[in-house]
Amino acid sequence: MHIETLTPADPAWQAQALCAQTGADFFFPEPGSSVREAKRICGMCEMRSACLEYALANDERFGVWGGLSEKERQNLRRVTP
Ligand code: SF4
């Protein structure tokens, strides 16, 4: 979850999002950069499921959401239309 991209309709889980405390930099790395740190933080985040659901429902294409990279979410969309 990335505060600046959330709509006001989705307030429930963002207050507990770990990335709101760490900043968005890890979650939107430069192309080709590692997403390991973002994933590590997501792994400790209690909002991970809600975050991933939100990203899939809103077709978020960029960055790490719910512990999954752009490519991993893309793959998930292919198997679960
Ligand atoms: S799962 Fe990751 S991207 Fe989502 S709210 Fe938690 S820390 Fe942020």
From TrEMBL:
GO terms for molecular function: 4 iron, 4 sulfur cluster binding; dinitrosyl-iron complex binding; DNA binding; metal ion binding; protein-disulfide reductase [NAD(P)H] activity. Its cofactor is [4Fe-4S] cluster. It holds the Pfam family Whib. One of its GO terms (biological process) is cell redox homeostasis. Keywords: 4Fe-4S, Cytoplasm, Disulfide bond, DNA-binding, Iron, Iron-sulfur, Metal-binding, Transcription, Transcription regulation. InterPro entries: 4FE4S_WBL (IPR034768), Whib (IPR003482). [4Fe-4S] cluster binds at C19, C42, C45, C51. The Fe-S cluster can be nitrosylated by nitric oxide (NO). Binds 1 [4Fe-4S] cluster per subunit. Following nitrosylation of the [4Fe-4S] cluster binds 1 [4Fe-8(NO)] cluster per subunit. Residues 18-75 form the 4Fe-4S Wbl-type domain. It is found in: Cytoplasm. GO terms for cellular component: cytoplasm. HAMAP family: WhiB. Acts as a transcriptional regulator. Probably redox-responsive. The apo- but not holo-form probably binds DNA. Belongs to the WhiB family. This is Transcriptional regulator WhiB.
